[in-house]
Design brief:
Blueprint: H1 2-23, H2 33-46, H3 48-56, H4 61-70, H5 75-94, H6 99-117
Helix pairs in contact: 1-2, 2-3, 3-4, 5-6
């Protein structure tokens, strides 16, 4: 019983992540590739056939393979992520959020941006 529910969990996570990634194609504020990476990772835990399909897909496969082989992120994606994080911080500061949140979130996003810009780059 536990094995079945564990497999079901990984499959559900893979499908939900793929759905969010697909939503990210037309919606500029929702990132596509991180959800594709999560989908491939979850599929690898409980749905090998779906993982293989995703990795070999002509459109979705290349960023997943780049990440798996090199941990690489295209420069365009780095810039887009950085601009979106900066935009998010600006909106946060304009909101009525508590001061501790207005300080903590930018620090966390700065750490993410530093990590992101240290990743290898590929064309694309």
């Amino acid at each position: 019983m536990w094995q079945f529910s564990k497999t079901l969990f990984w499959r559900a996570l893979a499908l939900m992540s793929l759905a969010l990634g697909l939503l990210g194609i037309p919606l500029p504020v929702l990132p596509t590739v991180p959800f594709l990476l999560l989908s491939a990772w979850a599929a690898g835990k409980g749905w090998p056939a779906f993982e293989l399909w995703l990795v070999q897909h002509p459109k979705f496969g290349p960023p997943v393979r780049r990440w798996r082989e090199q941990g690489a992120v295209p420069r365009k994606a780095k810039w887009l992520a950085s601009v979106m994080m900066l935009f998010s911080v600006g909106l946060l500061w304009l909101s009525a959020s508590p001061l501790w949140l207005k300080v903590a979130v930018p620090l966390l996003l700065l750490a993410v941006a530093c990590w992101l810009w240290r990743r290898p780059e590929t064309a694309g």
